[in-house]
Design goal:
- By secondary structure, the protein is an alpha+beta fold.
- It folds into three domains: 1-31, no CATH class; 33-80, no CATH class; 86-163, no CATH class.
- It contains six helices and eight strands.
- The protein has helices at residues 2-8, 12-25, 29-32, 57-65, 133-136, 140-143, and strands spanning 38-42, 52-54, 77-81, 95-97, 100-105, 108-112, 117-119, 159-161.
- The chain has a three-stranded antiparallel beta sheet, covered by helices on one side. The protein has a three-stranded antiparallel beta sheet with strand order 4-7-8, with no helix packed on it.
- The longest helix has 14 residues, at 12-25.
- The protein is globular, with a radius of gyration of 20 Å.
- The termini are far apart.
- The mean pLDDT is 81.
């Protein structure tokens, strides 16, 4: 099969070699994926407000360089690579939340709440529409606004605890 492709695409062999080199250089290549998706969110914001996914550097630069904002004149942004191959439970992404309290630095004293919990988006994971907040964000403030979301499995309240 590879020979048929190699005959049709002259640079195929070089491209495969380059991809193998990239994989060796970047241990997270499988997580990062090849779709070039980035999460852009306003720093200091909460409840999923202002979070958008982008594939295009020009769009990202337009957003983060736009100085005019209704709430503040100085807006800072967090831009991070989207994990394009996330772990999936019942067709949904998830995140783990663990409450931690640090009461002293020297000696380091850390208290952990006994029960972490798992948060799920309101919709099944897909890349068909990166603007679908209900498939990509697991924030409770976002999920509570989801109406008539198509899912394969129902996860009551979009959260699990470990009980």
């Amino acid at each position: 099969m590879d020979r048929k492709i190699a005959n049709r695409i002259p640079d195929y062999i070089d491209t495969v070699k380059l991809l193998k080199q990239l994989v060796q250089m970047n241990p997270q290549f499988e997580l990062d994926g090849e779709r070039n998706i980035w999460i852009v969110k306003p720093a200091g914001s909460s409840r999923g407000r202002g979070i958008v996914l982008y594939k295009n550097l020009v769009e990202i630069m337009d957003v983060v360089s736009n100085k005019s904002n209704k709430t503040t004149d100085l807006l800072q942004w967090i831009v991070q690579k989207y994990i394009e191959n996330p772990l999936i439970v019942m067709n949904r992404k998830f995140d783990l939340r663990q409450w931690v309290l640090i009461t002293d630095w020297n000696p380091l004293t850390v208290w952990m709440y006994a029960e972490p919990y798992i948060r799920f988006p309101a919709s099944d994971f897909t890349f068909e529409n990166i603007n679908n907040r209900y498939a990509h964000l697991s924030n409770n403030s976002v999920c509570k606004n989801a109406n008539h979301v198509q899912t394969t499995h129902e996860i009551e309240g979009n959260m699990w605890n470990l009980n």
